[in-house]
């Protein structure tokens, strides 16, 4: 376990400088402050003051960290979580990590320092080490949506494997065999599970698999060019977009290429929102249970705060499928 001495040594500063950076009581130059914070992140160091605060008074506040507040899926979860907390007499403190692991770490420490009673995190990567340290220091933590890893943290998400398999099987039943799968990043286990569900559905239908039909578009700024190039080269009859942002990107690519939609190419999205039925063709989509996801995560955290000491929970919820105009039957 890292100590303040380890942080000082790695940053090349004195222990007093590290202490001043972390407690904010004295001025430290931007250069030294940056070096100290980088060392803290690298070592996963949680200051003793934070650990002590976790064992002190209750504040009736919960911390919530999301990776992108502009994403309608995460925005929907925020609304459910905030309402669930308020109904139980808690206030929710929201932070946006902007898909930045270092910022997420800083935000988590800041929320812990503010003595939140518990923390819900949609992480930028699978099972961050610092969250296990915060839990060991007495802070209840629940991982939501991105729940890869095996440790003692509570987790709530959907069955991504089954959701992608059901979606792919739906396209196959409509006569599609040339199905292009768009993914954000294979660094996240929930996306890898969606890829595996897609692959197993193809295998069960006797459709040959080619890794080039899985297109990684990027997590932070998905690449339109990657989608355009894949459509030009593969000429799919259907696209399965594995996130809501990629659904929009796929529609943009289809319009850019002036393809008949859905006459020449069909589209199945992941996540269902108001815009799905604003413009024709209405978007067919795998539908994640946002209300149930948020409620379950809040319930588990609040139960922990009431003294629940049962083994770590891993909740997987089923998705639905909304078949609409964007998927055309062929053959």
Structure description:
The protein has 12 helices and 12 strands. The protein starts with a helix and ends in a 9-residue tail after the last strand. The protein has a 6-stranded parallel β-sheet with strand order 2-1-3-4-5-11, with helices on both faces. α1 (4-11) crosses α3 (30-43) and α10 (224-234) packs across α11. It is of the alpha/beta class.
CATH superfamily of the domain at 160-288: Response regulator
The appropriate CATH architecture of the domain at 160-288 is 3-Layer(aba) Sandwich
CATH topology of the domain at 160-288: Rossmann fold
One letter per element, helices H and strands E, the order comes to HHHHEHEHEHEEHEHEHEHEEHEE
Structural class: alpha/beta
* Helix count from the secondary structure assignment: 12
Question: Can you tell me the CATH class of the domain at 160-288?
Answer: Alpha Beta
DSSP strand count? 12
- Biggest sheet: strand arrangement: 2-1-3-4-5-11
Shape: elongated
How would a crystallographer describe the biggest sheet?
A: 6 strands, parallel
Radius of gyration: 22 Å
Helix content: 40-55%
Uncertain runs: none
Q: Calculate the terminal CA-CA distance, rounded to whole Å.
A: 61 Å
- What number is the mean pLDDT? 91
Residue share in β-strands: 15-25%
In short:
With 331 residues, this protein is α/β, with parallel strands linked by helices. It has helices at 4-11, 15-23, 30-43, 48-53, 72-87, 101-113, 129-136, 160-173, 189-204, 224-234, 244-256, 290-305; strands at 61-66, 91-96, 118-121, 141-144, 154-158, 179-183, 214-216, 238-241, 266-270, 284-287, 314-317, 320-322. Among the domains are: 1-45, 434 Repressor (Amino-terminal Domain), CATH 1.10.260; 160-288, Response regulator (Rossmann fold, 3-Layer(aba) Sandwich).
């Amino acid at each position: 376990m890292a100590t303040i001495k380890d942080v000082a040594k790695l940053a090349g500063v004195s222990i007093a400088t590290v202490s001043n950076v972390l407690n904010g009581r004295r001025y430290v130059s931007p250069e030294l402050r940056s070096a100290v914070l980088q060392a803290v992140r690298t070592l996963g160091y949680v200051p003793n003051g934070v650990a002590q605060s976790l064992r002190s008074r209750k504040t009736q506040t919960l911390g919530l960290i999301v990776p992108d507040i502009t994403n309608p899926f995460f925005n929907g979860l925020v609304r459910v979580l905030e309402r669930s907390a308020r109904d139980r007499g808690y206030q929710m403190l929201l932070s946006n990590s902007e898909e930045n692991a270092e910022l997420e770490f800083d935000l988590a420490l800041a929320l812990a320092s503010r003595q939140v009673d518990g923390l819900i995190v949609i992480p930028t990567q699978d099972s961050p080490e610092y969250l296990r340290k915060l839990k060991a220091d007495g802070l209840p933590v629940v991982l939501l949506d991105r729940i890869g890893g095996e440790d003692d943290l509570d987790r709530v998400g959907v069955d991504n494997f089954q959701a992608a398999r059901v979606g792919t099987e739906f396209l196959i039943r409509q006569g599609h065999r040339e199905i292009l799968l768009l993914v954000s990043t294979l660094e996240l286990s929930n996306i890898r599970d969606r890829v595996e569900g897609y692959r197993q559905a193809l295998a069960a239908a006797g459709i040959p698999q080619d890794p080039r039909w899985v297109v990684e578009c990027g997590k932070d700024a998905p690449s339109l060019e990657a989608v355009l190039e894949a459509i030009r080269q593969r000429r799919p009859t259907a696209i399965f977009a594995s996130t809501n942002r990629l659904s929009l990107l796929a529609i943009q690519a289809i319009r850019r290429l002036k393809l008949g939609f859905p006459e020449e190419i069909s589209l199945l999205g992941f996540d269902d929102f108001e815009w799905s039925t604003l413009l024709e063709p209405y978007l067919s989509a795998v539908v994640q249970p946002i209300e149930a996801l948020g409620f379950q995560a809040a319930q588990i955290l609040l139960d922990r705060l009431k003294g629940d000491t049962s083994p770590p929970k891993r909740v997987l919820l089923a998705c639905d499928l909304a078949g609409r105009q964007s998927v055309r039957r062929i053959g």
